[in-house]
């Protein structure tokens, strides 16, 4: 059996897994799985490389994410008759220092845990899961790939906050997130349309978490998320950009402490807060309730407004990419966003949009519009291979790295 890496993409309520063959120049999928976590149960689905569901997924322990992922790893090793070469994890926040994938060590783990206040929904779950795997497989190398890494290299003015400069010593600046998704999309667009990929593109990762990225010749030059994944667009349960004075009012006048503020802004705002119904765009689109329509309209408005702002950073617009749950599966939302961007030259092919074609702009559109499924797990696998190769080239045994 060929060597393979297990890519682990830890979300707030789901964990996506992918086993990838890494013997060739690209990471080729072998199996994929999705774990959905509840208070008492862990539901799992598994697909083969062609996307066909496997009729007998592995049994997993209920409730605890780490136990369930270890169960999947054990099942996978038995099914493929060989242990994994390494496990790679998506880590949302790499801070100012982690710009390349790395092998997890205790020291690196402690440094990344210190960033948890800047990404409370994602940072500790990913690191805790890695710790669980490390306990079950102490000699198995684990690599970390960072969502923030793709956005390093911005012009400093893009990432600077309007705070006293002394706070920069605390690592407070804009970082940007969803970098693994944007890195994949940039590469995919180079395959589909090299001329547009060399130009000015706004990529829209629209899911439960949502952001936009300005790509210039495939590089990130600006993005909507800032120091934390709370910033930018309206999201499923996150508020996005908000007047800081509102935060002060909630704290000083309405008496919300830090814990209640965090819960409000991360878990009870966004589409859920505005609609009072759900943070799921599918539910809102099916509802006739006025607050649900208000939430969808606000989401569309904010995406279009921020896309236009990123076009300003780019100095024009040659392409738009939609991806993730809403971007890939909600033609009504794509159409409404494109209608608001018509002044920039976007012309939507309505039939192609309804079908969910790969390209949904008209032949005469001044801006090419694409719907591209993202693949963060593939990027995790590729970054894991990069991290493994760096250590092997240095000739340092993994046992020393993991100690």
From TrEMBL:
Catalytic activities? acetate + ATP = acetyl phosphate + ADP
Q: Which residues form the active site?
A: 147 (proton donor/acceptor)
Per UniProt, the keywords (alphabetical) are: ATP-binding, Cytoplasm, Kinase, Magnesium, Metal-binding, Nucleotide-binding, Transferase
Which InterPro entries does the protein's record reference? Ac/propionate_kinase, Aliphatic_acid_kin_short-chain, Aliphatic_acid_kinase_CS, ATPase_NBD
- Residues that, per the record, bind substrate: 90
Pfam families this protein is in? Answer: Acetate_kinase
Places the protein is found: Cytoplasm
GO CC field: cytosol
Q: What is its EC number?
A: 2.7.2.1
Q: Which residues bind ATP?
A: 16, 205-209, 280-282, 325-329
Q: Which SUPFAM superfamilies match?
A: Actin-like ATPase domain
Cofactor dependence: Mg(2+); Mn(2+)
Which regions span the lipid bilayer?
none
The note on the cofactor says: Mg(2+). Can also accept Mn(2+).
Binding-site list for Mg(2+): 9, 376
The annotated site for Transition state stabilizer falls at: 178, 238
GO MF assignments: acetate kinase activity; ATP binding; magnesium ion binding
- What highest taxon heads this organism's lineage? Bacteria
Pathway, per Swiss-Prot/TrEMBL?
Answer: Metabolic intermediate biosynthesis; acetyl-CoA biosynthesis; acetyl-CoA from acetate: step 1/2
GO BP term, example? acetate metabolic process
What family does the entry list?
A: Belongs to the acetokinase family.
- Report the PANTHER family cross-referenced here: ACETATE KINASE
* Physiological role: Catalyzes the formation of acetyl phosphate from acetate and ATP. Can also catalyze the reverse reaction.
Which proteins does it associate with, and in what oligomeric form? Homodimer.
The molecule here is called: Acetate kinase
Native species of this protein? Phenylobacterium soli
Gene behind the chain? ackA
